[in-house]
Amino acid sequence: MAATPQPATRPLPWYLPPAASGRSLAPDLARGFMLLLIALANSSWHLWGQTPSMSNHPADGSALDRALRAVLAVAVEGRVYPMFAFLLGYGMVQFARSRAGRGVHPLEIRRLLRRRHWFLVLFGFVHALLLFAGDVLGAYGLLGLALVGLFFNRSDKVILGWGIAFTALMALGGLLGAASGGWLESAITADPEIGRQVQESIASSSGSFDISGSGEPNYLLAALYRTLMWLVASPGSMLLLTLPASILFGWWAARRGVLEQPAAHRRLLTWVAGVGIGVGWAAGVPSALHHMGALPLPEYLAWVPLTIAYSFGGFAGIGYAALFGLVTARRPTPGRLGLALTAVGRRSLSAYLWQSIIMAPLLAAWGLGLGQHVNTAGVLAIATATWLAGLGLCVWLDARQQAGPFEVLLRRLVNRGRPAVPPAWGGPAPHAGAGAPGSR
Question: Which DSSP category does 437 fall into?
Fold first, then answer.
């Protein structure tokens, strides 16, 4: 009797968690440390009443101030938000897999992801309205909505291809921007009248109102400025292709469990960390030299180094995430510092909002107004102290096994009114251990 042919084994859908999957250490460790860099990067938004440089830090200052601005230009500005976008994408896959492991239907998972990102947009709006014009939650929420709609069930190959395409377009835009700066310089050299008109335009725009609202003593008027800027900047951030590219790379890496099993992907992580950080830091060198006075540029060309730095910043952002994967591969069991950083990473939404809750009233003109009187070194010290205080609070919450307050609020809002879905939804049964307590 002939054997009955067996159907070909099909790969499991990407949203089903692998066996014994739990919460990965590397993303939380990375989030915890990078929130310090976010505090440093955002500190300049709270400065006002001084002559700003292109990065909004005071244009003058001591040698220490200039050196710190150079370090920020190389390693921080334009680098940390792409890294967080990568981790956002990674977390979206973890979110989907944890729900699938509990028997939630894929259509319901997609609905929950949409709800989660709509509420991120709402959180971002309230954040900007009350405290901080440079909010990024709104942009992340809008990007999440768009990418879930376009790529939720697409293959790894498609996702990786679009991530590479977005990265290439952003890099090309940076190179074209630098080339246009050279063209502008040639045009001004050939016709001094063009240079005079450009300088007059820069001088007239320098007296425009403070769109961040930090220098506005009237809180309600400052709130209006912040909200208007958020309404323009959040959708506009979607055009910064580094962010959607980073999210898609995060999806691709999470589907393959790169950070859950860093030792198995050590070669990939080493390559990404080395090349990514190397390219990203190299792109920030012209901006650093400009801050240090070693690359003098006329006012009308001061934007060129920033264009290059931000266009290639995503390389360093993803390189940072890979670096933390290598750290966890080398030391799977964290020490005290690692545990403290992961406590912050697990409460990254609360830790991010904590920075504005402390720094905005302390530095803005409608608060204590210190932003008018501190230089780069001073505001970075305040940002670091704010992060350290937040770290202490997160460790305190972790010792009591309590989530961050804004994580609790977001979870309740997302799950409110969720329809009951029977565990057997017709797909492959989830693996054992998929619903571990540490999963997202």
Answer: T
Q: Which residues span the domain enclosing 287?
A: 28-409
User: Which residue's entry shows tokens 């952002």?
Assistant: 317
Tell me, yes or no, whether 5 lies in a domain: no
Q: Are 306 and 181 in contact (CB under 8 A)?
A: no
Nearest to 56 by CA among 211, 231, 217: 211
Q: What share of the chain is helix, strand, coil (3-state, %, to 5)?
A: 70, 0, 30
Residue 379: inside a domain, yes or no?
yes
* Number of domains making up the chain: 1
Tens of pLDDT, residue by residue over 316-348, are: 999 999 999 999 888 877 788 989 999 999 999
49: which residues sit within 8 A by CB, 6+ positions away?
215, 365, 371, 372
Q: What 8-state DSSP symbol labels residue 61?
A: -
Quick check: 118 and 111 in contact, CB under 8 A?
no
Show the CA angle centred on residue 78, arms to residues 61 and 374, nearest 5°: 25
> Residue 58: helix, strand or coil by DSSP?
strand
Q: Specify the long-range contacts of residues 151-155, CB closer than 8 Å, at least 24 apart.
A: 151/248, 151/251, 152/110, 152/113
- Confirm whether 332 is domain-assigned: yes
Q: How far is CA 95 from CA 64, 313, 415, in A?
A: 43, 27, 13
The residue whose two tokens read 């961040």 is 212
Give bridge partners of residue 52 from the DSSP assignment. 58
Going by C-alpha positions, the residue among 322, 314, 311 that lies closest to residue 272 is 322
* 306 lies in some domain: yes
Terminus-to-terminus CA distance in the chain, angstroms? Answer: 50
At residue 380, φ and ψ (nearest 5 deg) are: -70, -35
Question: Which tens digit of pLDDT belongs to each residue from 393-419?
Answer: 999 999 999 999 999 999 999 988 655
pTM value surpassing 0.90: no
